[in-house]
Amino acid sequence: MKFGRFVLRRLIGIFFVLLGVTLATFTLAHVIPADPIAAALGPNAREAQIEQMRREYGLDRPLPEQYLRYLSHLVRGDLGRSIRTRRPVADDLRDFFPATLELSLAALAIALLLGVPAGVLAAVRKDSLIDHATRLFALLGGSLPIFWLGLVLIGIFYSKLRLMPGPGRIDQFVEPPLRLTGLYVIDSLASGNWAALRSSLAHLVLPAITLGWYSTAVIARMTRATMLEEMGKDYLRTARAKGLAERSVVVGHALRNAWIPTITVIGLAFGSLLSGAVLTETVFGWPGLGRYATAAAVSLDFPAVMGVTLLAATVYPLVNLAVDLIYHYLDPRVRLG
Amino acid sequence: MRRPPLLRNALTVIGLIVLACFVLAALLAPTLSPHDPLATALAENLRPPSAGHPLGTDQLGRDLLSRILHGARLSLTVGLVVVSLAGVAGIVTGLAAGFWGGLLDDVLMRLTDVFLAFPSLILAMAIAAALGPSLFNVMVAIAAVTWPIYARLTRGQVLALRERPFIEAARAIGVPNSRLLGRHLLPNVISPLLVQASFDLGSAILAAAGLSFIGFGAQPPTPEWGVMISEGRNYIATQWWLSTFPALAILLVVTGFNLLGDGLRDLLDPRTRRGWE
Amino acid sequence: MRRSQLYLLALGLLIALIVSSCAPAAPAAPAPAEGGAAPAAAQPAAAAPAEAATTLVYATDTSDLISLDPAVVYEFTGVLIAENIYDTLVKFEGDNLSELKPSLAEHWEIAADGDMWKITFHLDPDARFASGNPVTAADVVYSFSRVLDLNKSPAFLLADIPQLKKENMTAVDERTVELKIPNTASPQALLSILTFSVGGIVEKAVVEQHVEGDDLGSTWLRDHSAGSAPYVLERWEPEQQVVLTANPNYWGPAPKLSQIIIRHIAESSNQQFALESGDIDVARNLTPEQVEALSNNPDITIYRANTLLLIYVGMNVKQEPLDKPQVREAIRWAIDYKAIVDNLLRGGAKVHQTIIPEGLFGAVDNNPFQKDVEKAKALLAEAGVPDGFSIEMLIPTGPAPGGTDWSNIAAAIQSDLAAVGIQVTIKQTTQAELLNIYRAQSGQLVLILWGPDFPDPDGNVGPFTDYSQRVIAFRNNWDNPELAARARAAALEADPTKRSALYAELIETVLHEGPYAVLYQPGVVFGLRKNVQGLLWNPMGTIEFANVSK
């Protein structure tokens, strides 16, 4: 299938999916028997206040009209106003998304930097201690409740050993770097703010390990499997027969082909990262989307819930699309569509 | 005598043993528990493991071992309910989509796309929030994010099998569609679904625990493992066992299901063997 | 060759960077901070050791913070911060809630004026905003008008209770303000309301420069300040921290600490760790077990203070058999209050069974109920339900004030009531959902809390007795017009002796006839680093940070 057509088809698909997503979340939000407005104003609020706020948020209109208004605002980039924070949801998302993105990227980086070498080693030294250890870790990695892991890491490395900094993105006495992207690491690099860089990196370590735990296991498994498959292939037998050193065989040839399928895992990992972020951010007090979504869900703040799910439902398929394109670019034998 | 195929892999055996213990614990919880999991005894709270309380006591003096055993019951229920709900919904959808194809197929597949577009925990959280905090609502929520996979798998299998000679033959004889679906297609579709179900039994337990931890699922004093980890979170530095034992329970059980899933996959479809050769 | 080396290099670099960043850039202990515990003295970080000595880091859960505009602020964290950036006309000092002290108003008079009360405030001529401009009567009138116009959560405190209207506010001259309220309202109530953040005075000239559309400057004031108090708002990073710095133009004595950081740490365990390591100076949300553990720590002081909150069980009078007063009384005699307070709350609360909390005018120390199974059963028999009955109790999720989870209190009540034959099913929902059900008068038993909106007994007695206020009595379907009339009379009674007698009678009536079982009055407990001095918690929920030193 031609490249352009493929991308177009996928994008159209994503569009319809998003439409479905808005309908789904909208329906969900209004299935709630409870009234988020009254809840947001607290137990002491008077009736007149509640009515006024309800009018402000357009909640006194019939449902289909509310949905259409929502859609018409959506195309203009207006995601509505959060009932809990009273701010435009778009502003809230802009504030909190970079934190989650940074955490997810850090987690992914750890997963790749630890998972890939582990998988390669395990494959190369199949059935050795390293192999068994890696397989064990990969097995447990997918079964461990990461919220517990986060608690333990904080307890050990922050409280008992004082090796790592505590909750938050950056040390309280260090001013956050000038905001370019919202990712502290990138912004500090860009503005040459070394104190901020060191502080934000230090604060990233424990949460990224917690969040990346599951992905590390998956990537290690995947790498090992694909390496094993590659290493058994005929062309490598030829290479070995030609007298090439095993190391050169492994790294030069097998790895080069084996890590491509790993890329598809990255796409899938992203979804699990966004989910895991909810738990990780709660434990580490990380001011990101996961926490925002949780607070929104608890307070029945459906504009915010819709905003977050829309954002996630946009990012995730786009990431998968990007992954598919990269995969095709790297290995043109893979058919698109 | 040769061992049956499933038991040939040592890891799968380990998984089965773990799961057998888990199911036994769940079924026999009331008999095995030394104490009432809900009985508070404030004078004896926060005790470390001892003879009377093999896993210690929590902040209200409740015996941790009894709570974990009863929690096994809850977790088993969660896994089974989620997989059943998701499985039924998914199989029905997948069969319909694959068998009749056309517009129905497109619509149903777009529907699964919508569900798959959400990161699972966020969607589950939104559903659980809408329905209210309870373990049952959490089960519904998790089933809602799990069913698309079953639909996809079923549809894929149906598409692969639809044109096979034995189906053609049955159709030629005049077998009605319902029998075609039920008697001929369904049994052959099951294998990948069983593999998926094993993994999902574990991941459902993990997801439910996560949702309970942040406050959406089971509520205290229910001895659900996620709730117990949440209740123990303020004691992690001093009475670490409150959160750790439930976490280990989750770890063991989910690992057991993963091992079972791996074993089933190797057994049922050797072509897709990956990883554990 | 190339690729694996690249991997290793990247890995090595990352590890090196992380390891180097682990070297503490911030001091581990605030006390010897001047000694420069930080080895990494890069330029911005050099400020850290010095900063720490003159900064108070106060950790709490700030997720309820919506805005710092005094006309909008109504939640705990917002009020705490707003009262440190905005001055009010009058104030209470420390934890004293009966004696009004001058703040922006040097002195004031209350006089009758036809069918109204006229309250005249004379502003202190020295009072200045952080900008350097004097505080004028025009600013006062502007601030109060904003509250009424914006009509956000705290607006009812001015509009409904004292019935203040815009046309009744006048700036007589540069430094004199006149407020007129109908004589059916209480001037004392108005004065105590004005001590609250809703009475915060903003600088009209500054706010008017930042008005967007018809928001009256609210968007800008959300995270900027235009006040006259000892601190100004430096920045607010949502879900992270709020930073206050000392007001260089403060018109009173300079605050002792140059910077206050209100840091968002939601998990109690993280607060404990941070307090122990000295990263924070004050921890607000510790559990009783954590408090016990920390009381042996030589670096930490435990500070306990009062609140005006009451935790109670509401009984829906229209729900049979709660319509029978003996049944309600039986419930009150079945609960083991002492066990809850001693075992679950462990010093975090006091038994208190009357509707005026300790610390407010008119409070009494009368707690007659304790667990008496025989008495409770006898009352049930008298009411015609000797074998008990089944009922549902609605409770919120999460922690209750006092230091334990709502579910633990509910479990204790459930077990107490079971002993007299009442089978309670606990239904737990989010606070949002609970309020909706409660407001719709659809609860059966509801376990919840109440805090007065202003430090006057009418802030509790009104809601608990007056159905027409559509608050607590309404939610429990208790319509007693005679009692409501008595409550209104007591609110307006000027003579303190008569007033206190009226309230004593009211309390007694509600104690035995009302649909409430008041359980306890929670305190607050803070964990402080040993060197923190002068931190005083006002039961209305505020702290004057200007008086705190290290």
List keywords for this structure.
heterotrimer, B: 277 residues, mainly alpha, MetI-like fold, 10 helices, 71% helix, elongated, disordered C terminus, C: 550 residues, alpha+beta, twelve-stranded mixed beta sheet, four-stranded antiparallel beta sheet, 22 strands, 22% strand
What's the topology here?
The complex is a heterotrimer of chains A (337), B (277) and C (550).
Chain A: H1 3-31, H2 36-41, H3 47-56, H4 63-75, H5 89-124, H6 129-141, H7 146-160, H8 184-191, H9 194-231, H10 234-242, H11 246-284, H12 289-298, H13 302-330
Chain B: H1 10-27, H2 29-32, H3 64-100, H4 102-117, H5 120-131, H6 135-162, H7 165-173, H8 177-213, H9 225-231, H10 241-268
Chain C: H1 2-22, H2 43-53, E1 55-60, H3 76-85, E2 90-91, E3 101-102, E4 105-113, E5 116-123, H4 137-150, H5 156-159, E6 169-173, E7 176-182, H6 187-194, H7 204-209, H8 218-222, E8 231-237, E9 241-246, E10 259-264, H9 268-277, E11 282-283, H10 288-294, E12 300-306, E13 310-315, H11 325-334, H12 337-345, E14 349-351, H13 373-383, E15 389-396, E16 399-400, E17 404-405, H14 406-418, E18 422-429, H15 431-439, E19 445-450, H16 458-465, H17 472-475, H18 481-492, H19 496-513, E20 516-529, E21 537-538, E22 542-543
Parallel strand pairs in C: 1-10, 1-11, 15-18, 15-19
Antiparallel strand pairs in C: 2-3, 4-5, 5-7, 6-7, 8-9, 9-10, 11-20, 12-20, 13-19, 13-20, 14-20, 16-17, 21-22
Helix pairs in contact in C: 11-13, 16-18, 18-19
Offer a concise description of the structure.
The complex is a heterotrimer of chains A (337), B (277) and C (550). Chain A is mostly helical.
